[in-house]
Design brief:
Elements (H helix, E strand, L loop, with lengths): L4 H10 L3 H9 L9 H8 L8 H4 L10 H9 L3 E5 L2 H4 L17 H6 L4 E6 L7 H21 L4 E3 L3 H9 L3 E8 L8 H9 L2 E5 L23 H13 L2 E3 L5 H10 L5 E2 L16 H9 L3 E4 L3 H4 L1 H9 L1 H15 L3 H17 L9 H14 L4 E3 L19 H9 L4 H27 L3
Parallel strand pairs: 1-2, 2-4, 3-4, 4-5, 5-6, 7-8, 8-9
Helix pairs in contact: 5-19, 10-11, 11-20, 16-17
């Protein structure tokens, strides 16, 4: 049963986590009372710096043509899915310091002109109930704290206009997406609280079904969305929270597509015609997503890019078992460590010839297929950095200019490259915001 706003606040305060109390206090006492004007005031409190500091960067990772460099560093590059949040949780990782591990930190984002990043709020599907809400709030707080600590470089953004304004300031826009509907504990009040704290998309499921939607990698239990699941989509539309259909079953996708008044996106999915993973989208799904004005954000994970890699994993399941065992040995239950070490170990198996090598050109192959099927207005970037196994040549954010170079070499116009890099995503955000205003006004 849905709780009222004040009732939800009381329940959140009552939940046992001391960290939640800290979170609530930091966000002015009562989560649901955090108004949009206050959020905007916080967003633009930092001192502006010149955008020249971004545009003038030298790409050192690889040789990039002058045309590609100028285009890339004058574009707004948006990545709709990064799992770096997990690295914030133990207090040891500093986003402002260049790291020798992982894919994301501020120096490398600047070097690759990653202009806007959606930090994923994630936990396994098996974590449910009040614990899932507690842990989600802790992660939201962790993202906001990183932004606060690095206010000279980053600003929390919640709208497309704010992303553009942050860009003008020469800073990086930080956004958030909740990766899995299990984190709302079947409570629309929790969803509203996340939206008040800055969350701007929610993936309806993760790898397992939640109480109201089926996942693409679990046995169907609801035949798509339940009636409550449809209410979740409607409330997301009203709140201006993008409906993310990565991870969901095909039936859940079509149910969400039918119910939603706003465009949807797949925050980190690729093309099933090239790599037959259930997490990827069929050609028809991409066409139907595009017809609704949505965007498929291409995922860089090698297991979603390469059929050869996927076949090799299936042919020898002991490899993944061995990697998992070694990751547990090295990391224990530290999920941020697990994600980074999993990628490192996978590369070791590739170097040993036990798994096939996947090059970053596969990302371009998926982009080109999606453009052919859905149209250039409906394709974007959702890397899965710090949460998946990256292809060679796209190890971290410094490599992003290579995508611009490759697309130009394929004959894409500069305008179309800008769309893929970020403008398509900003268009979806703008439309979702417009529909939210109309629904909130009762139109």
């Amino acid at each position: 049963m849905e709780a009222g706003a004040s009732g939800l606040a009381c329940r959140l305060i009552a939940w046992r986590s001391k960290l939640i109390s800290v979170t609530i206090n930091r966000f002015t006492g009562v989560i649901v009372s955090l108004g949009e004007s206050m959020v905007r005031a916080l967003l633009f409190a930092a001192v502006c710096v010149s955008s020249v500091c971004v545009a003038g960067l030298v790409v050192s990772a690889d040789s990039i043509s002058e045309r590609a460099r100028k285009l890339h560093f004058s574009s707004i590059v948006v990545d709709t899915h990064d799992d770096t949040t997990q690295r914030f949780l133990d207090g040891k990782f500093d986003l402002g310091t260049r790291s020798s591990t992982g894919s994301i930190d501020i120096p490398r984002m600047r070097e690759g002109n990653l202009s806007a990043i959606f930090f994923s709020i994630w936990m396994p599907s098996k974590v449910t109930g009040p614990e899932a809400v507690d842990r989600a709030l802790v992660q939201i707080d962790a993202v906001r704290e990183q932004v606060r600590k690095h206010s000279n470089d980053m600003v929390l953004a919640t709208t497309a206009a704010e992303v553009r304004e942050v860009r003008k300031q020469g800073k990086i826009a930080a956004l958030m997406g909740v990766e899995g509907g299990h984190m709302i504990n079947s409570n629309l009040g929790v969803l509203r609280s996340y939206a008040a704290l800055g969350v701007r998309y929610m993936t309806l499921t993760h790898s397992g079904n939640d109480e109201w939607a089926d996942s693409s990698t679990d046995k169907p239990a609801h035949n798509g969305l339940t009636e409550f699941g449809k209410d979740v989509v409607r409330e997301m539309n009203r709140l201006g929270v993008i409906v993310d259909i990565s991870h969901v079953s095909d039936k859940t996708f079509y149910d969400a597509l039918e119910v939603s008044k706003a465009p949807l996106f797949a925050s980190h999915s690729s093309c099933r015609a090239i790599c037959d993973a259930p997490r990827n989208m069929t050609d028809q799904m991409m066409k139907d997503l595009a017809a609704k004005g949505g965007v498929v954000q291409i995922n860089y994970h090698v297991g979603f890019l390469s059929q050869e890699f996927r076949n090799a994993e299936k042919a020898d399941p002991e490899i993944n078992k061995a990697i998992s065992a070694e990751v547990t040995k090295r990391c224990g239950d530290n999920e941020g460590c697990q994600l980074i070490e999993g990628d490192r170990l996978t590369r070791e198996y590739v170097e040993q010839g036990k798994l096939p090598r996947v090059e970053f050109g596969k990302i371009i192959e998926h982009i080109e297929h999606a453009v052919k099927v859905a149209g250039v207005d409906h394709v974007g970037l959702g890397s899965d950095f710090d949460g998946a196994n990256m292809p060679y040549g796209m190890e971290d954010a410094t490599k992003l200019p290579k995508l611009t170079e490759a697309l130009l070499q394929k004959g894409y116009s500069e305008g179309d490259v800008r769309k893929i890099l970020g403008e398509n995503t900003l268009r979806v955000m703008t439309e979702v915001e417009r529909i939210s205003r109309e629904l909130s006004a009762g139109k």
